[in-house]
Amino acid sequence: MTESNGAPRGAGGGSMPDWEKRFRAPRVSLPDWAEDAPDRSLFVSNATGTYELYAWDRATGEQRRATDRPNGTTDGVLSPDGEWIWWFSDKDGDEFGVWLRQPFGGGDDVPAVDGLEASYPAGLAIGRDGSTAVVGRSTDEDGTTIHVVRGGGAPEEIYRHRESAGVGDLSHDGTLIAIEHTEHGDAMHSALRVVRPDGTTVAELDDTKGGTQELGLEVLGFAPVDGDTRLLVGHQRRGRWEPMVWDVASGEETDLSLGLPGDVSAEWYPDGSALLVAHSFEARSDLWRYEFGSGAPTRVETPPGTVSGATARPDGSVEYLWSSAAEPSVVRSTSGGVVLDPPGLKAPVSVPVEDVWVEGPGGRIHALVQKPAGTTGPLPTVFEVHGGPTWHDSDSFAAGPAAWVDHGYAVVRVNYRGSTGYGREWTDALKHRVGLIELEDVSAVREWAVSSGLADPDRLVLAGGSWGGYLTLLGVGTQPDVWAVGLAAVPVADYVTAYHDEMEALKALDRTLFGGTPEEVPDRFTASSPLTYVDEVKAPVYVSAGVNDPRCPIRQIDNYVDRLAARGATHEVYRYDAGHGSLVVEERIKQVRLELDFAARHLS
């Protein structure tokens, strides 16, 4: 075994390469804004080299870093009155902590809620009065609990259940609370309950009942009008995510059949008269406006690519975070121009993505391909597998794939079964044969890449982080003769140990995916665990892991690495002081350098 020290060959000297500039260039998130003080905003930026929260007074133009921690901070929200910044304080990325708050204009951080011990967060909603909050918590001991806090008083528990749940939203007048829950035991498909602040139930909506299909619901938000009992809800009744309006007082459901393919979500315009519709289809996304009674949405013009977030402002304009595979992300407005343009280094562009459709065992598979401009195959090729698994790769800017392209590699990203954006059946297909189904789709695309002349069959790299790291380790074990190198970041490596050590919400998800616990369905966990196949691995393997990771805990990774070491298998492991990934730019750059160097040494 080799312990990486972060100083690979070729790491120093010379001018800064483009791939490194992309990581160092200042980036910003879509700004959140206070409902009753829209000139006050909150956003995330890496301007100082670590991702932190920033307060922005649009009236004066002043921007202030609100948090400053060695391992960064990204979870924060403004109170509707704009007076307070709430942010979640954990320990070095372990995701276990408490909510703190500070005045918008600056000042000391104080506990936001007295009387609630540290936990994993399970949603937060803050009332318009600034002193009422609904706080969701999750712990291994209690499952999920939800508490209401009024006027700085003691928190009152209004919900408790062993299965996963979370705060959905608080109504505009503070009289109704929407909760997403999985009391039925299916962590992939939530039901909804609306309660009063004292916990009494007002209404229930559950699409998992009365049928054989597994259908989910999600809270998109209460109407932003006092006394309005309409709740915007996402549903899967037609096999994909679409919005509808549910009046929780009358029970009336208003279907919004928008005629758009793919998944559709929405949020209210600030006056409640219309919806801002976010539409995702085949790895791209765009925006639409839907006015009640109009019958059809009208397009909000955005460039081709991916809109990663959008919000409607009180003046009717829309701000959105946009990028493409070739062009770095930027916050734009339909009123014209760039909303936030951080000073300093600008990220260099990359190459566009190409779409590929491949017939697979479960249907047509969508893959995204990038390769160095002007090159022809066969090329060394990185199959970079996305995490989630309920996520998807899109035509959006990503510094990691761009770095591989800069070094002469083709990059192939596969939206395997389990990915979102291709319908409910595609997302839900991976149950019971977890990991193995996804790898069947990766294999089908790999065969296309080789037969098409794109990929060199002797220089194929399987790589990914989180669930992608899990699939990497499972792939090099179950398909040992086809991969030349495996690069796994924060992976599941020993599934049984991972289940027992991970946070409670992920245990619930695993029980849904596998159909039970490791004790109840041991054969399924064994068949899907990379540790089962560790002795079959032939490719050199690089593993990176956060020592405080609650999602893919370190002990199960050590179990896997120890087995590689016991038989003298070629591998390297890099442990770093963070959780499920790092928010520190220098740390991210170091990890990419290590992966690039490892692949170069073992593909030569």
Structural class: alpha+beta
How many individual helices?
10
Number of strands: 37
> In what range is the share of β-strand residues?
35-45%
- Helix amount: 10-25%
Low-pLDDT ranges: 1-13
* Rg result: 24 Å
Main sheet summary: 9 strands, mixed
- Average pLDDT for all residues: 95
How are the strands of the largest sheet arranged?
1-37-36-35-34-32-33-31-30
- Termini gap: 20 Å
The geometry reads as: globular
Question: How does this structure look, described?
Answer:
The protein is of the alpha+beta class and 604 residues long. Helices cover 17% and strands 35% of the residues. The chain contains 10 helices and 37 strands. A 9-stranded mixed β-sheet has the order 1-37-36-35-34-32-33-31-30, sandwiched between helices. Helix 1 packs antiparallel against helix 2. It is globular, with a radius of gyration of 24 Å. Residues 1-13 have low confidence and may be disordered.
